[in-house]
Amino acid sequence: MSQTELGNELGISFQQVQKYEKGTNRIGSGRLWEVSKVLGVPIDYFFDGISDDEPSDSTVPWWIVDLAKQIGDIEDTNVQKHIISLIEACSSKS
What we know:
The chain is built from five helices and no strands. It has helices at about 5-10, 15-20, 30-40, 60-75, 75-90.
């Protein structure tokens, strides 16, 4: 799938997709979940090779990776959406 096609599916520009790929812009958990659904892969696909047992130079704390994997393991996509919405609502700065 091209960056343009992915951007169209997500409702964003191909430039934004490119920035996510290059690491220029960070990608939020909700957007990452949307990408996983468009690409037809589980969300933990993006965390392959990250081990809980090994220290990492990554800026992503281990518990966030673990949480993403657990959400990805939920089979009901409606439940996944509600969990993501709940997290986003709780983390919104009002």
